[in-house]
C-alpha cells in the first residue's frame, strides 16, 4: 500500500508540489489582502469599487512576486537560463489571470454584493486552475531536449 502511494506521489509530483506552492502563495496573497483590508478598511465587508480594486492589486502583486521562484524551482524545475525573459512571461501571464480575477471580484462583490472574503475564495479556485494551465503550457514548458533527458533518466531508473 505504501509503495502504491509513493508511486502515485512520484507520478503526480508536479501537481502535488503545485498545490503546496499554490497553497503557500494563497496564504501570502490572502494574508496581504486581508491585512490591508483590516488596516485601511476596518469593519468593511461590502467593499466599494475603489476598495475592491485596491484589495485586488495588493492580493495579486504579492502573490505574483511570491510565486515565481517556487514555481520555477520546485514545481516546474525550470532550467531556462533566460530567467528575466521567463519571469516576464510569468508576470505577463499572471496579469492575464489577474484581469480575470478583477472582473470576477467586481461582479461578485459589487454587483452580487458578496462579502469580499467569500468572493476571494471563489475566485481563487478559478485563478489557480488557470495559472497552472498557463504555466505548464506556456511559461515553464520543457524543450524537446529536456524531455528527452527526462525520459532517459526514467529509463535508467527502471
Structural write-up:
- The protein is mostly helical.
- The protein has one domain (14-147).
- It has six helices and no strands.
- The protein has helices spanning 2-11, 13-40, 49-75, 83-111, 116-139, 144-157.
- The longest helix has 29 residues, at 83-111.
- The radius of gyration is 18 Å and the shape is elongated.
- The two termini are 20 Å apart.
- 22% of the residues are buried.
- The mean pLDDT is 90.
Q: TL;DR?
A:
This protein has helices at 2-11, 13-40, 49-75, 83-111, 116-139, 144-157. It is mainly α. It has one domain.
The number of domains is 1
Question: What is the helix content?
Answer: over 70%
Low-confidence stretches: none
H/I helix tally: 6
- The mean pLDDT is 90
Helix/strand/pairing class, anyone? mainly alpha
Could you tell me the radius of gyration in angstroms? 18 Å
Q: Termini separation (Å)?
A: 20 Å
General shape: elongated
Strand content: under 5%
Main beta sheet: strand number and arrangement?
Answer: none
Total beta-strand segments = 0
Order of helical and strand elements: HHHHHH
Topology (elements, then pairings):
Layout: H1 2-11, H2 13-40, H3 49-75, H4 83-111, H5 116-139, H6 144-157
Helix pairs in contact: 2-3, 2-5, 3-4, 4-5
For this entry, give a set of tags.
0% strand; 158 residues; mainly alpha
Amino acid at each position: 500500500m505504501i509503495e502504491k502511494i509513493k508511486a502515485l506521489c512520484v507520478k503526480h509530483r508536479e501537481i502535488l508540489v503545485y498545490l503546496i506552492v499554490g497553497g503557500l502563495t494563497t496564504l501570502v496573497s490572502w494574508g496581504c489582502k486581508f491585512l490591508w483590508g483590516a488596516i485601511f478598511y476596518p469593519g468593511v465587508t461590502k467593499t466599494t469599487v475603489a476598495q475592491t480594486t485596491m484589495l485586488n492589486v495588493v492580493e495579486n502583486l504579492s502573490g505574483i512576486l511570491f510565486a515565481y521562484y517556487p514555481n520555477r524551482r520546485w514545481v516546474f524545475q525550470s532550467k531556462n537560463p533566460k530567467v528575466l525573459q521567463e519571469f516576464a512571461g510569468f508576470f505577463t501571464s499572471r496579469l492575464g489571470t489577474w484581469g480575470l480575477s478583477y472582473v470576477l471580484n467586481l461582479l461578485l462583490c459589487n454587483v452580487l454584493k458578496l462579502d469580499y472574503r467569500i468572493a476571494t475564495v471563489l475566485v481563487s479556485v478559478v485563478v489557480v486552475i488557470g495559472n497552472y494551465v498557463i504555466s505548464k503550457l506556456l511559461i515553464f514548458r520543457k524543450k524537446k531536449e529536456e524531455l528527452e533527458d527526462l525520459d532517459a533518466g526514467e529509463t535508467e531508473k527502471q
